[in-house]
Amino acid sequence: MSPRTHIVGAGLIGASIGIGLTAEGWSVTIEDNDDEAQALARSIGAGDALGDAQPELVIVAVPPSAAAAVVAAALGRFPDAVVTDVASVKAPIAAAAHATGASSRYVGSHPMAGREVSGGLGAQGDLFKARPWVLCPNGAAEDAVALVARVPEALQCDVVTMDAEAHDAAVARVSHAPQVAASAVAAALGILDADDVALAGQGLRDVTRIAASLPGMWADIARLNRAHLVETLDHIIADLEEVREADDIGEALTDLIDRGRYETARIPGKHGGATRDWTPVTVIVPDTPGQLLRLLAHTAEVDVNVEDIAIEHSPRQPVGLTTLYVLPSHAPDLVAALERQGWEIAAS
Amino acid sequence: MSPRTHIVGAGLIGASIGIGLTAEGWSVTIEDNDDEAQALARSIGAGDALGDAQPELVIVAVPPSAAAAVVAAALGRFPDAVVTDVASVKAPIAAAAHATGASSRYVGSHPMAGREVSGGLGAQGDLFKARPWVLCPNGAAEDAVALVARVPEALQCDVVTMDAEAHDAAVARVSHAPQVAASAVAAALGILDADDVALAGQGLRDVTRIAASLPGMWADIARLNRAHLVETLDHIIADLEEVREADDIGEALTDLIDRGRYETARIPGKHGGATRDWTPVTVIVPDTPGQLLRLLAHTAEVDVNVEDIAIEHSPRQPVGLTTLYVLPSHAPDLVAALERQGWEIAAS
Q1: Are B17 and B59 in contact (CB under 8 A)?
Q2: Where does the record place the ACT domain (chains A, B) (predicted)?
Q3: Mean pLDDT per 10-residue interval, chain A, length 348 residues
Q4: CB A174 to CB B211 under 8 A?
């Protein structure tokens, strides 16, 4: 029997959770202090109006800056319910819950939806499917943790349990500081004219991809996670200054690249394992519909699984370079098969 | 009639140019002060031994740190030849050529091969095809520039002409500093344990992708382009410190993100135009061979051209998320078609 669940906040995250749990047969109610958002969420199946029955589980899905106060209020307003929230910074909210004296009923959540998602009208039940959903129990009762865990389980997320402070330190390094650094690299393009910027290759496009995202909740996130973010920025600044100040800038950069390489190897690739050493096979692909499909069809004929793809469009030319990342043992067969089919291999 | 061409340096770049020009019917000779490299290059068709006939064009393809001296020597050794080089920093080499008094016969080149390429055995004639090839005339005679330009034309590159100093300032911003910043972001992961690093999403993977590359020639490049690199790092450091020191870190970060967004929009996407506003359609894809092919086949059925693809493997789950970037006007049809075929759309 699924818990009677009440969602406070009918934005993208709250509404998506509501739709997803409703689809799994849960009894869900939802509210928002914005009447229009509340009406929209109810109309798209994200939940009903709260009735007389008290909820067993309350999910606070409000902007990060409001989460601490709304969680504290929810713990008082629903004295028998377990409360969770979905903000992307966890320690300040855990502290607010602790201050109420009811923190045994509070479990922090951080559902890690992808960067491509934004806009309140985009709510959908499987927004979090196959993504990590972090739980921060931080002293909550065991049955409270088990109850909250049923949400990511129902939504088919990858449940990860960790301490709130450790979570905030980690997301500062894997998410918040990378955003700041990517934006700073992009901002440094400001003195270049268009012809100069046109020298950009795939490397710059990769580094600055997240710099194209909307500011959205970043201001809130930076304020709430300031200490960890500043600590991480200090680490990055110190490394940049070490290169900048070095007597031998070449040696200093080699040292930094070596340290960076060591760490990138720890970023998980597939299924929680370390990044595999995939072999890139770069193919020249005419930039017309269907070519990528032809390429992958020829790839499939030799039973090679494509682990990743990078597509680089060529400035001013009607062809692009597509790099297929495959297991090293598959690369020679793939190259031979593609050449047999008439593809030009630019690098492998 | 193609110019008699002599290549000094039989590493990946020199040998690849030799193979490419030979394939176009050019008469090419090649030498290397490493006997083994020289023999290998000659055996794979990168050029013959230099005979009695003096070359009309000399291409210096030695490591960046040696390029200035070898260019100056080549201008003296071949007094009737036009000389170019392929180092990725241009002003110091132009200065060395100028100091010989023979700079009317020197034109700098920077063929911008992709980041995936490395290793001397990987030489191939179309290494540079469809990539930018920068020419820096810097006071060379017009016929010298025209002669050197025949190389990228023969190799089907995208020829870009610019001043050597402007080139170096530009590559510091679009290539060298982004490498340093990506490595610094990666190095900052050092304090995290494996579970924490596992929170990494596609954003971190994008930012740190080039941080996984080998140090290679970066030490040389940083030394030769130190002034421009330091200036760019100072810009980046100042932006990071502005965020770090701000009274309101949220406001400062929003400002930086806004500036970064403005600049990323100037990075060319397809065919020299500004990055298009592609619409992402994210699909849940079982992580087994052939699934990506099926997905693209269903995409092709509705005549939608895929502009870019991002594949995100899900830690610990046998599915991945694949994002197809398409023209906004194509997105609704694509989503409908994929859903009809039974695909789960995670976001669009």
Answers
A1: yes
A2: 280-348
A3: 96 89 96 91 92 96 96 98 97 97 97 56 66 93 98 93 96 97 97 89 88 87 97 98 98 96 80 54 76 80 77 59 82 90 81
A4: no
